[in-house]
Ig-like domain-containing protein
Amino acid sequence: MSGSKLRLLWTALAGTIAAVLLISGCGSSAPEAQKPAEPVAEVSFEPGADAGDVNPTAPVKATVEKGKFDSVQLTNDDGKAVEGQLAPDGKSWQASVALGYGKTYTWSGQATGQDGKQVPVEGKFTTLQPKATVRATVNPTDDAEVGIAMPISVKFDKPVQDKAAVQKALNVQTSVPVEGAWAWLSDQQVDWRPKDYWPAHTHVSVSAKLYGVSYGDGDYGMADLTSEFNIGRAQIVKGAVGTHQLVVERDGKQVASYAASYGEEYDPGRNTPNGTYIIMEKNPVEIMDNPRYGYHDVRKTWAARFSNHGEFIHENQENAAALGKVNNSHGCINLSAADAKSYYDTALIGDPVEITGSASSMPPQFDVYDWLLSWDQWTAKSAV
């Protein structure tokens, strides 16, 4: 082969190699690998993640869309699991108990989506911290049997500012229809009484859902309250001062009339005042004092208190000559020892005591004064 032909061959071969190198080195690159798809399962919370000042009675729930929970748990500051229920379809979990005040709660677990991929269950929230938690009590207590004038009383350790919020948390259920209403007798006491006396043998259920309720000024309810009690037979004590008799009616019939001495009629400080009261307490022996009238540590038996002003129905055998004839007590209703015992044995806390014909009336200020108010006066004391 001649030199010129050899040079042409090498030139052609070099061009071919250059073309190949140009194609392989300068052409478009290979396609990049595709990113994996995001999991489709979506977990959400109520309250939302990182929420603060959550009311401990608020609904607490975790929900998963496009998947199901494999496991889900809510724990408190101490790592203790909160009681709750997973829905049968596995798509939601809800707490079944109220939470605590001033706590941090943490979600954990995992869910699997419809695409088979897992996602974590994670997040935190905190509950509100009250300035103070306020204790309340309810009366009557469970299983009590009380008279037909007995009010329901809820009392608080501190004054309540948001009375409407508290009152809305109170509920009364009765075995027969009974019209009644709540009334605030002070900043620390709200009572419920029927418009008229309770029907005999009514069963009463009281519910006070006070935990988590704001009382105002940073105060919250300490705990819920409940009570179930019964109204007894319908017994009414009637004291017509001028008759010198104390009459007892039971279920609409007179069952007793006792010779009595009421308070001195011409001394307002010694009157047995007009009004409707209730039997508040019973004591087989009561020690009585009245410095104004100069007596101390006087022992009387079979004493049934019907006013915190100082009035009782009790034995005063020493005043036997006046019983049924003269009103000369210091405001109490005196009976003979036998009659006082007979009455005492029939009395229930909450029985009404109706005093009429006196020279004076009791102002509505001495606990318990629920029945000294008219129905219009009573309902005007409601906060809602």
In short: The radius of gyration is 40 Å.
